[in-house]
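User: Sequence recovery, please. Input:
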């Protein structure tokens, strides 16, 4: 990075300071969860978790591991704050429309604790931009208590398969019904719209399916409006893991590869409709 030594000296005592040579890697992950105005940022020695929630029914988490950064320094065990996600994304995208081929914007990010702004220093081809984003005290976030030991069914597939299915959903339907079963039809997505009932089956032996682990038949319905935000990370990912637990809660885990070939993950949790049944 070629940030001036003056700026380095000015920000080297911050509670959180990170540097990354390619700000687009952070930008792409934030865009994947950018369906609400605000987000809660959790910073630890492992990296950053950016959490976005809506209606106390869905939650998306973008994980930006510490090893993605060329420098990652944190002075506390855990730092949390709330930030305007729209502004965050806009700042990171300052050079987005005029980037020189082969040159990527570098990012230095600093935060000095409760009440302090989030400072972004972006540099590309010698041009330096300084952004200061107001932060707020972090709200309590939902705990979906979704653990591997409670997972009943899991399907891992190539994202392009599920993306194609989602693009053909009948959006006049209020719900998406998901059937996962060790028996045929194995994995079925259904809508119930103005033009009738529509089923899409994905065979367990499909070339698009990498892993199929279903232990019992479960049929659950989810509000289609709540699932729409998951299309963003789905479009950015290479693989997606679809999991349900014994309560019918849905977890979509998206594997995203950055421009620098780092493997990152975005998780999306959704509560079922009450009328769902096993």
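Assistant: Recovered sequence (278 residues):
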């Amino acid at each position: 990075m070629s940030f001036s030594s003056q700026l380095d000296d000015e920000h080297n005592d911050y509670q959180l300071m990170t540097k990354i040579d390619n700000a687009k890697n952070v930008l792409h992950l934030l865009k994947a969860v950018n369906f609400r105005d605000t987000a809660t940022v959790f910073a630890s020695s492992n990296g950053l978790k950016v959490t976005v929630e809506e209606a106390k029914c869905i939650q998306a988490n973008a994980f930006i591991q510490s090893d993605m950064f060329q420098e990652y320094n944190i002075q506390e065990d855990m730092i949390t704050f709330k930030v305007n996600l729209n502004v965050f994304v806009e700042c990171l995208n300052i050079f987005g429309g005029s980037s020189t081929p082969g040159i990527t914007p570098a990012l230095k990010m600093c935060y000095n604790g409760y009440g302090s702004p989030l400072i972004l220093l972006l540099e590309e081809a010698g041009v330096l931009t300084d952004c200061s984003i107001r932060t707020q005290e972090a709200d309590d976030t939902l705990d979906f208590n979704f653990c591997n030991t409670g997972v009943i069914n899991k399907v891992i597939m190539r994202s392009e398969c599920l993306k194609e299915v989602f693009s053909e959903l009948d959006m006049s339907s209020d719900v998406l019904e998901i059937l996962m079963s060790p028996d045929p039809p194995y994995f079925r997505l259904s809508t119930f719209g103005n033009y009738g009932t529509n089923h899409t089956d994905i065979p367990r032996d499909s070339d698009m399916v990498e892993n199929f682990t279903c232990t019992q038949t479960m049929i659950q319905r989810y509000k289609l409006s709540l699932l729409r935000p998951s299309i963003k990370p789905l479009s950015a990912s290479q693989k997606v893991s679809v999991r349900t637990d014994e309560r019918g809660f849905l977890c979509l885990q998206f594997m995203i590869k950055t421009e620098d070939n780092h493997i990152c993950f975005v998780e999306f949790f959704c509560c079922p409709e009450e009328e769902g049944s096993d």
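The domain at 148-270 is CATH 3.70.10.10 (Proliferating Cell Nuclear Antigen).
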